[in-house]
Amino acid sequence: MKTIFEKDLSGEIVSPNEPGYEALITDIFATIRTATEMNTGYRTPEEVHEYMSRILGKPLEESTTVLPPLYIDYGQPVTIGKGCFIQQCCTFFGRGGITIGDEVFIGPKVNLITINHDPDPENRSATYGRPIVIEDKAWIGINSTILPGVRIGYGAIVGASSVVTKDVPPMTVVAGNPAKFIKKIETGKDINDKLD
C-alpha cells in the first residue's frame, strides 16, 4: 500500500479523510515554518542556502541563488539544479514534484503549482498532483503561473504574466493566458537583432 506521500507524487487522488493525511499536513506546516523563518528579516546568501537545504531535504547547489521571500508548501519533492536564479515572492506548491534544471531563471512572483482539486464538488477537498519539469536554461518571466503537469523545454522563455497550461517546446517563446506560441528562439544573432 502506498503512503500518502507516494500517492501525491504518483498523481493519485488524496483525500483529507485517509490515513496519513495528518502526517502530510504536519510536514507541510514544518516546511512553511522553515520558509517563514527564512523570509523574516535579512538573510545572507549563506543563510538562505542553509534554510533552502533544510526545506528541500538535500543541499541546494552553491551556484544557485534564491532571493527570499519564497513561499513553499512542501520541499522534499522539489529539485533545483546548478546555476539557477530564483527571484523574490515566488510560490512553489511542490507536493506533485518540481524539477528545475540547470541555469534556469525564474522571475519574481512566479507560481509553480503541482496540486489540483477534484472537479467534483462533492469531493472537492481531495487533491491530486502532477509534476512540473523546467528543463535547463529556461526562463520564466515575472508573475507567470505554471500549472500541474507542465514541462518547460530546454531554453524556452515564458513571457511575463503568462498562465502555462500545456507543455512548452524547447527553444520557443510563449506568452499569454493561456500561454500560446509566439516564436522560435534563434541562436548566434546579435542581441539587438534578437530583441525585435
UniProtKB/TrEMBL annotation:
Transmembrane annotation, as ranges: none
GO MF annotations, alphabetized: O-acyltransferase activity
PROSITE patterns: HEXAPEP_TRANSFERASES
Domain of life (superkingdom): Bacteria
SUPFAM superfamilies noted in UniProt: Trimeric LpxA-like enzymes
Keywords for this protein: Acyltransferase, Repeat, Transferase
Signal peptide (residue range): none
InterPro entries: Hexapep, Hexapep_transf_CS, Hexapeptide_acetyltransf, Trimer_LpxA-like_sf
Similarity-based family: Belongs to the transferase hexapeptide repeat family.
PANTHER family in UniProt: ACETYLTRANSFERASE C18B11.09C-RELATED, SIALIC ACID SYNTHASE-RELATED
UniProt protein name: Sugar O-acetyltransferase
Naturally occurring in which organism (per UniProt): Parabacteroides merdae
